[in-house]
Amino acid sequence: MLLHIHANGQRRTLSSLVHGTMANAYPQAIGIQEAFPERQVIAMCGDGGLTMLMGDLLTLKQEKVPLNIVVYNNSSLGFVELEQKVEGLLDSYTDLENPDFNKLAQAMGIWGKRVEEAHELKPAITEWLNHDGPALLDVKVNRMELVMPPKVAAGEVASTALYSTKAVLNGRMEDVVDLVKSNFFER
């Protein structure tokens, strides 16, 4: 995500990229929005992080906190899954069966919209950012797309190859094909 956000002297970003951090974007953003009510604050959340704190959507509504939330919905605990793969492990217990976050937000009285196709994204972002009050944008993203660091270490490549070998031997060849296609052929 941060690879696509360009500092321009007018934006500030806060992130926690520490190993194992989960569900920090949403509560940090609530605090920042309350501390700086004149600024537009955007929480960029994974679906796992949002589901851990779904009850706080009620707080946004009740307290009228005008936070903009985008949910990167890949139906998995994506960073945990990635960490398992780069350690050469088969990913396990990372699948999520998510609710429709758009409908969930609307049921709570919060503006919500779901985006499933790339051509829907730009108009949805405009509408989301222009909404006055709490707003949630649920964006379906590719589960297999890797978040690449600026520099890839040889050990990470070897461990990912080990993961791929284990996946094939465990009947998960389709996962490996999706991983390769998503990161090397669909860009």
Give descriptors for this structure.
alpha/beta; single chain; Rossmann fold; 187 residues; 44% helix; elongated
First CA to last CA: what distance? Answer: 16 Å
- Total number of distinct structural domains: 1
The level 1 CATH classification is: Alpha Beta
Alpha carbon gyration radius: 18 Å
- Which structural category fits the helices and strands? alpha/beta
What CATH architecture do you see? 3-Layer(aba) Sandwich
- Quaternary state, please? single chain
Instruction: Tell me what portion of residues adopts beta-strand conformation.
Output: 5-15%
CATH fold-level assignment = Rossmann fold
Largest sheet: 4 strands, parallel
Contiguous runs where pLDDT drops below 50 for at least 5 residues? none
Helical segment tally?
Answer: 8
What helical percentage do the residues reach? 40-55%
How many strand segments? 4
For the largest beta sheet, what order do the strands appear in spatially? 1-2-4-3
- Which H/E pattern describes the elements? HEHHEHHEHEHH
CATH superfamily: Thiamin diphosphate (ThDP)-binding fold, Pyr/PP domains
Shape field: elongated
Overall mean pLDDT stands at 88
Describe the structure.
The protein has 187 residues and is an alpha/beta fold. It has a single domain (12-185), classed as Rossmann fold (3-Layer(aba) Sandwich). It is built from eight helices and four strands; from the N terminus they run αβααβααβαβαα. The protein has a four-stranded parallel sheet, sandwiched between helices. Helix 7 (154-169) packs antiparallel against helix 8 (173-185). The model has no long low-confidence stretch (mean pLDDT 88).
